[in-house]
Write a structure and sequence with these properties.
mainly beta, Fumarylacetoacetate hydrolase, domain 2, twelve-stranded mixed beta sheet, four-stranded antiparallel beta sheet, 5 helices, globular
Amino acid sequence: MRLARFATSGLDRVGYETAEELVEVGLSWLEVLEAVTGRPEPRLPETGARWPLAAARLLPPLDPHSRGLFCIGMNYADHSDETGSSLGPKSTHPPFFLKPASAMVGPNDDIDLRSAASSQFDWEAELAVVIGKGGRRIDPDDVAGHIAGYTIVNDVTARDLQREHAQWLIGKSVDRSSPMGPWITTADEVPYPPQLEVSLAVNAYQKQNGNTGQMIHSIADMISMVSQTITLHPGDVFATGTPSGVGFTRQPPEYLGPGDKMTTEIQGLGVLSNVIR
């Protein structure tokens, strides 16, 4: 099942996608996530309303009141190697940071990256894991039972701001800079742990190509690690890191500019298509 937040007739709605239609359900976003977690082929109460997919605007599949995304840095060996020491030393204890919900836009939205904020906006294609069942001190062997599903995040980063501050929050959190979506594919449709191809292109030129099986810290380990000190809630999202191919490590460095089109794709989960304005 592909769960979606979407807007039609000026109203935000919750539903699922099927056969190029969006079917509205009579539950809140968090109630939907809880309802599908741990259930093969889940069924949701429909309101009877349906819209063509092309007639709706897909919203980021994230609760608008969310505390944001838990993000892990340097979680692919090839990306860690390409950055060298420019973003800090390698460690067996990975860096985590929160990316606020205000940084996220929908899967087809234009992105307004004003040069006054930064001149070095960069791309990072990532698998995101969505929590449907909360908990604390979750054992790694139990993590799968807490996952509602998976989606795509492009963790767009202002590299100059990231380097200027000791913490990454500022460089990772520019308002409406980072695409997410197009929906959440429920966990029953994705073999666990996911072994999915991740790719990103700018203006049809491929920049990143990796596989989620290359992660240094597994989904089970990173979710368990955070839950040892932070109670997780339904709707929490984990962005799991990016493979090599980011712009700032290229020679010469490459950054996003007006008119650039980013296409972010993960096998079986969909595509984000966003133009820089």
